[in-house]
Amino acid sequence: MTIRTDHDERARRQGPPAARPLALITGVGRTVGIGAGIARRLAASGWDIAFTYWSPYDDRMSWGREPGASEAIGRALAEQGAATFAIEADLADPDTPARVFDEVEQRMGTVTALVMCHCESVDSGLLDTTVESFDRHFAVNARATWLLIREYGRRFAADRGTGRIIGLTSDHTVGNLPYGASKGALDRITLAAAHELAHLGVTANVVNPGPVDTGWMPEEVREHCVRSAPLGRLGTPQDTAHLVDFLCSREGEWINGQLLMSNGGLA
């Protein structure tokens, strides 16, 4: 004997559940990072998540590698009902963006949202930046952004009006010249997509999260930022994630071609 509940009857009328859209998020290497925060938020909103990370970058930075981070992030996303796929990817290699899209499509299908959180960020100024460092910043922050967007545009096959491109940027240049300059290039490349990919019904925006301490801030920088912020606190990965979540939603479709400040009013 089969007992049909009200829930069963609603499910029969409505048919099978809709497939979750897929977001590809770059630069998700640490559980405390902005990329991981965005991945968790989108997973909770019904997205499947493919993400990239590059451990050798963390090895070179003051915070170091976080062992098991990609596995922990994957488990957290799965708890939100998301299918996940992690790829270790060196975005300084110009062949990497196409390879990433190949692997994601083979494992998970068409990418609907491309969210770019990857970066190269080494503190140096006008007088002490090396040519090698300058070139690497532009390879990762600018060239890889272009190549990722190019692959996305060439392969986009989701419904018109659902496509989303979001890049994370920064306006910090003093004492951080190659990072800020290459992020400025990222802005221009990403915003161009709002017009050049208009025929696909794709929106493209850039988000500046302002100062978010994910383990890189010295105490004096932290104190200065808190004093300077009208709300008296630092930004969090969750603050950025909520904005990205909205931009990726149906309700966020009319916001397009914008550089959005999400910094609590910090001048």
Automatic annotation (TrEMBL):
> Is Zinc-finger found in the keyword set?
no
Q: Which Pfam families does the protein's record reference?
A: adh_short_C2 (PF13561)
State the superkingdom: Bacteria
PROSITE patterns xrefs: ADH_SHORT
Alphabetically sorted, this entry's keywords are:
Oxidoreductase
Similarity comment: Belongs to the short-chain dehydrogenases/reductases (SDR) family.
In Swiss-Prot or TrEMBL terms, this protein is called SDR family oxidoreductase
